[in-house]
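Case study B.
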Amino acid sequence: MPKKAMEILTESMFYVLMAFCQSPMCGIDAADYIDRRTKGRLQIGPATLYTILAKFEKEKYIREINVDGRKRTYSITEKGIQAYEEELARLRQCVADAEYAFLERGYHYD
Amino acid sequence: MTETKKNGQHVYRLPPCPSYDVEGMERWLADMAQQGLFLVKDGFFAGIATFERNEPKSVKYRLEAAPKSTSMWADNGGEPDPEAVELNEKYHWTYVAKRRNFYIYSSSAPGARELNTDPKVQALALNAVRKRQAGAAWNAFFWVVLYSLLLLRKGLFLTMIEAGTWFFLFGTVLVLWLCLDSLLEVIALVKLQKKLSTDGVLDSEKNWKKHTVFYYCKNVAQFGLIALFICILIHNWSDSVLEKNQIPLGEYHGVLPFAVMTDFAGEGSRGYRMTMSGMGFNTVEEWSDCLAPRNIKYDEHAEVIRMDGTILEGGLYIDYHETISPHIAKKLAVEYYQMAQREKHFQPLAIPPLDVDYCAAYMDELHFPTVILQKENIVIHASFYQTSDSYTMELAEWVHMLAESITAH
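Model:
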């Protein structure tokens, strides 16, 4: 059965959750964190980020903890941490599978 | 004549594509900017875009699905969330205007980061728009069905003939067209979501000119037909409220194709006096329709002194239809009866056999004896109440006269 939209996090979603795992922050801070963390490889567009924040808040992965003018600060919830950990485990498995397949074919790392 | 082109001048344009054609709209706005026409702040009103003329330059426009309703009565006046606006501004995207379910942002910064970098998330954002549009389509469909049921309580043919068949069909086609339009919008949004989820990118070079003529023609036709429909509706409604088509009985010079109270009173009746005058009674309304070329609504309140000195007094209400075929006449007669059956105090009455194709009698909700007769292409629906102390005509008698009058006609 195909998985629902939030069952597999996209790369942008995963990194946004990763940002909130560090500390509570606002959307702009999360985007800056992702830029730094990925050294600019992943640049999340502002509309994408805003949609993810709204979706995460609706799914209770994050919650708003402070509003200062236009700036809203969010913190990750238990459900959000769980989703992050599940996705991390899935990605680890992907990498492990890929490495196993790579070695199985007789290739080896230099 | 050469058009004077001054910087700062406002120019108005009709968009060449619908709001949900995200690719077409983005390309059109960018092309306008290349011509020196820049969408002004809040530059969409009543479907018309306002541009300001300036030096041509390259500007990117992006349509962003509005997560909530953009109606001016919605929270925040339908404007985008200030947090989203600020977030976008940080990356050099400025909020310009909204068009239906989309917010329009622009950026002239060459290296500005794209607004949407994750097509799956963009498809997710379109969910809200699609759901709202689907909700609106269902809402429209629900009201259409509900109004149709209410309107057709009288019966299809009766409603068509009373409202005017062409007008009725015109309204039906228009409503179906609007419902279909709503549905097509939902389908277009689903396709766009699918495209984002599978292809992952939108076509920023889409040729918006391809369907422009069709889009303009469709909009002009739709607007024109809605305006025409409203005009006819208001005209018919004012005629009905002002009772423009009702002629006082005394001023009517036509030949009535059915028996009336003087006929009921019999030959040799000596005096006739209209009663309840000046109260909106005693009128005749005659109209034509393509399904029933001659229709008469007749309303008579009178007292007639019969040859033997007794008085026939009361009120006679008649609906008369000459239809184009006996089949429609039969349908009308059945619809009259079914309508009566739904009344609370409906009570069938027995009548002797008559030389007609259909007959039924009952007490109506006001306890007036009522009869429905159909002979070939003629239908008559008549209620006759009597108030005289000296004489009361039997139902069988006046119904027989009515039946004979339409048979003779």
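Helices of chain A lie at 11-22, 27-37, 46-58, 78-104. The remaining cases will be described in the next quarterly update.
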